[in-house]
Amino acid sequence: MTGYSVSTSGLGVSYGRTAALTDVTIDLAPDRIHGLLGRNGAGKSTLLSTIASLRAPSAGTVAVDGGDPFEDERRMEHTCLVRECGDVIGDESLKVNLDWFALARPSFDRMYAESLLDRFGLDPRKKPQALSRGQASAFGVVVGLASRSPLTMFDEVHLGMDAPSRNTFYEALLADFAEHPRTIVVSSHLISEIETMLETVTIIDQGRLLLSEEADDLRARGVTLTGPADAVDRLTAGQTVIGSRDLGPTRQATLFGDLDTAVLDRAADHGVTAGPVPLQDLFIHLTERTSRTEAHA
Ligand SMILES: Nc1ncnc2c1ncn2[C@@H]1O[C@H](COP(=O)(O)OP(=O)(O)OP(=O)(O)O)[C@@H](O)[C@H]1O
């Protein structure tokens, strides 16, 4: 079974008078790993729960695998949204919960789920209500991965897990995705750890779409220049500098936007090296700038 595509058109979602999403139009291709990034309250959870048909749009449309997922049995049972709040039976053992997921999810792989429980050090006899926050998150990851759903979405689920467990999650996700390609969406406001596995990046800010593009294209819009301060200043004059820091006489400046390639070509002649910019830095810049713009509007 191949992954589902996801698209939204002019999507709006409101909670009473609060507009959580406004005019969001995105297209997420099947069988890829997509990152959904946004600051606290940006609307990530609202977008994912609307795609999963847990919430109805106030405006616009959502299409999963080319059709409306709302109350559509096939699309809903093949869509798995893992949220921090759990969606598990709290007073039954993990083993019984897995039995239940195996019945509810057509592609669920029970043996894989048990091997993941083992990898995360989770006791199948324990009940979800007796798990720590990190263990509960890990159980969500087990369910999400073992569901092998054509559309699997992890809503900031890794944030409560410790570093070794997060690493286990990333490794398991990449290995299982290689063997069973499907559409994966990972939402987060902590990007540095997950950025290498993201193929596309969608950023929402204050309920509006900021960008949705290939991760490599976004990275290509930023560059760091490191070298003697005066040489870096000469090269960056007239360009959009989004950050700068000094270490003794050495300056590192981060540029973003339509980069002047002539500058990059000249950099080496001036003893300046050009390097990539972490997505996290671009994300901070992009979301800071919009917040400031709106604040001063
Ligand atoms: N049940 C609700 N009732 C009213 N407002 C809500 C509700 N849920 C979310 N909101 C509001 O909708 C907006 C988007 O919230 P959402 O939870 O989707 O953001 P998020 O990007 O997932 O945030 P975070 O990273 O902090 O989890 C916020 O302004 C939030 O206060």
TrEMBL record:
Gene3D superfamilies noted in UniProt: P-loop containing nucleotide triphosphate hydrolases
Keyword Nucleotide-binding: yes
InterPro entries named in the record: AAA+_ATPase, ABC_transporter-like_ATP-bd, P-loop_NTPase
Keywords, in A-Z order: ATP-binding, Nucleotide-binding
ABC transporter domain location: 6-231
Domain of life: Bacteria
Pfam families: ABC_tran
A GO molecular-function descriptor: ATP binding
SUPFAM superfamilies for the chain: P-loop containing nucleoside triphosphate hydrolases
Name assigned to this protein: ABC-2 type transport system ATP-binding protein
Organism phylogeny: Bacteria, Bacillati, Actinomycetota, Actinomycetes, Micrococcales
